[in-house]
Amino acid sequence: MIIQISFKLSAGSSKIFVSFSCDFILTGGQVSKSYNATRTIRVVSAPPLALGIPITWVIPPFYTTSDVLPKSSGFFELHSYHKNEDSISYSPLKSSKNNAFTSEDGISIAGSKIKTKESNNLDCLLAKEKSGRVEIACCVRVAEVAQVRVTKKEILANVFHLAVNDKVEMLINYCDDIGYPFFEAHGAVSLDIETNYHDVVSVHLPSEIDRWNYSKGIAHVQAHSHGKALVKISIKNDPRKATYILILVGPQIVPRNPGLHVGDFFNFSIVGDGRNNMIPGHWSSSNESVISISKTSGEAHAHAEGNSQVHYKNSNLTLQTTVAVLRNKQILVHAPLATLTNVPFPYEGYKFSVTLSDSLDYMLRSSRASFEATYDCRVIPSYIGYAKPWTDDVSGVSYCLFFPYSPEHLVSFVSKLKSTGVGLTNGAGEGHIYLSIIASLKEAQHIMGSACSLFVGGFSISMEGTLNFSPDFNRSLITIVGNTDVQMDWNSKHLMVRPIFEERFGIVAHAKFEIFAFEYQKFSEKITFAVPQTGQKVELAVNYNPGKQTPITRKVTLVVVVVSLFLLILTIVAFMRVLDRPDTYGPSRPQAPASASASPASPVSPASVLITPNSTAVTKSQSPITPPRFIEYVRKTLDETPYYKRGNRRFNSQYTY
Question: Which residue, of 526, 544, 562, is where some domain finishes?
């Protein structure tokens, strides 16, 4: 079963399933077998009715174009069996506004062709699809052909270098008086082409029939012999509407005006002499420091960046060409000025600009056109994050976008690396590391460039918001992952934060901190965790509310008060019993006999007493005299002592020391 035609309904994709069975008659019986197939068909949205750039088509007056207006907007409609049905119709915008179309209009539509009349007319063509879509397809301006231009491979050229018997095609373009190229002008004007030396070159235009096979005019040029010739192409032999081309025929150095890179080797040769035996010559370079060349073989070696002239001389001719030596193929990567971090980081990633050298810039331009980068990006060390190429469509600048991993991902990934025995990057400090972004060509991985930048890790806290403390709950644990080298600030004297655990994996770590409230007073405080290098800051609010005392708390307080009062009373009773003890006297002290001449009232000097082993004289010593002021101080102290009344207690003031 073959499906030849499928009809699209709307944009999207769908799967088509085909299932069938076959009966095979084999020797010994019949065998049935089923077959299944599936195919995904994607239906794209209808393309725009606008015909693209250039939006304004310049067409000569009194001219009928070829079939330049498409009559359908889809491939299926172009190749359907209903070829006579057109899905798009066109009309000049002016006639659409007037709801009338006359043959007198300067621009008209004839099927898929555009017809013009006199010049200096301007109108736009309105395209209307059967589905109801209406758009401006293009605009048409009618102008006289005023200039002719010659190009070679789409490049404006006024000098052609040809070897003997070479053939070349020159593309002829028509322009208006301000130099704007015509969209189509086949046979609109008659061209005259001539040369001053017919024996050197011959030039001719294609026949009238062949001319319509080209969207632009073409002139054929053939070189016959050595020399120079000037070719003139004009409109109706008007010198004001003419262009001139110089054609040089003879031996040429190939390649002409090449571009080399430092370190390249290249062979130059001579072609187009037209003789069987060419007279030998020698090669030379005008700047040996830029490029050196073998005198006999023409092998050149590029040494340094710059320009040099390569000459070839023999007895009959002198040839030269210019060689440009470019610096080595390289990629330049420029790091952003800001410090890189993973909390927070830009949503579109960190932009490392990528610049290709002159020799590689064509690859970058082609990648912009195809929306596919020609280079790859990667990060070293790779566990920090990943990078991908990207080109800004507006500015045309190419980048390597760096996306760092989150702190949680880093801790998990790096801990696994450490457990497997994989060594981490040296030079990593606590929370920071220098990383490199490397860009390399897809087609040549050895051509690469890199940029280095400082990466300071961020952190993540397991608890954010508010921490509520109470007498029954006055401490809590928080976990910080990532960069644990953070600053912690708070003002309250009732809080304490202390580390209790930390496990480090290179630049990242896993740490636990205890927050403790040690005052039974109501307060509110904020603990700030910050990394000054990146500006990351997280605040944790802490509230303490003592609340109402519970019955258990009141019982404990009452017991404490009763015990304290009992101990105080016991201490006072013990002190009073000590003060109520009876008077005591000291023991008798021996005293030496006084001399006969000594006065009874005179005190006995210890030096005047002679004590011998057989001496038995003993005298009773008296206590030292206590100062009256001290006695008064003791009396006053006892009077002011609480719960104490002296009454009739006896005391001897002599024993108060």
Answer: 544
Residue type (1 letter), 589 = R
Q: What is the pLDDT of residues 265-292, one digit of tens each?
A: 888 888 766 555 567 788 999 999 999 9
* Residue 409 and residue 521 in one domain: no
| 135 and 111 inside one domain | yes
User: Residue 167 phi/psi, 5° resolution?
Assistant: -125, 145
- Residues 464 and 130: their CA atoms lie apart, in Å, by 61
Contact yes or no for 270/255 (Cβ under 8 A): no
> Can you say whether the dihedral through the CA atoms of 302, 306, 307, 308 is positive or negative?
negative
Three-state secondary structure call for residue 231: strand
Work out whether the CA dihedral 418, 424, 426, 432 comes out positive or negative: negative
Rounded-to-10 torsion of CA 593, 597, 601, 604:
-40
Average pLDDT over residues 509-521: 83
| Eight-class DSSP state of 315 | S
Q: In this structure, what CATH number is given to the domain that contains residue 66?
A: 2.60.40
CA-CA-CA-CA torsion sign (417, 419, 423, 427): positive
Q: Is the dihedral of CA 304, 251, 195, 170 positive or negative?
A: negative
Residue 583, in any domain of the structure: no
Three-class DSSP category at 92: strand
Nearest to 436 by CA among 355, 364, 340: 340
Please check whether residue 107 lies inside any domain of the structure: yes
Region of poorest pLDDT, from 9-18, 197-206, 300-309, 328-337: 9-18
238 shares a domain with 296: no
Q: Decide if 573 is inside a domain.
A: no
β-strand pairing of 306-313 with 299-302? unpaired
Same structural domain for residues 136 and 170? no
512: CATH: 2.60.40.10
Residues 416 and 401 in one domain: yes
| Cα(318)–Cα(320) distance, integer angstroms | 7
Q: Which domain holds residue 484?
A: 459-544
- Answer whether residue 599 is part of any domain: no
For 360-398, how does the pLDDT look when each residue is reduced to its tens digit (9 = 90+)? 554 444 444 444 567 889 998 888 899 999 988 777 788
Q: Which residues pair with 182 in a beta bridge?
A: none
**Which strands sit side by side in the sheet containing 432-441, from one edge to the other?**
375-380, 432-441, 448-456
CA distance linking residue 140 with residue 148, whole number of Å: 20
Same domain (yes/no): 428, 464: no
Banded pLDDT at 549 (limits 50, 70, 90): low
Quickly tell me which residue has 């509407």 as its tokens. Answer: 241
Q: How many domains does the chain have?
A: 6
How many residues in total does the chain contain? 657
Q: Please indicate, yes or no, whether residues 234 and 286 belong to a single structural domain of this protein.
A: no
Both tokens of residue 93? 């915008």
Neighbour tally for 629: CB within 10 Å = 7
The tokens of 331 are what?
């990629």
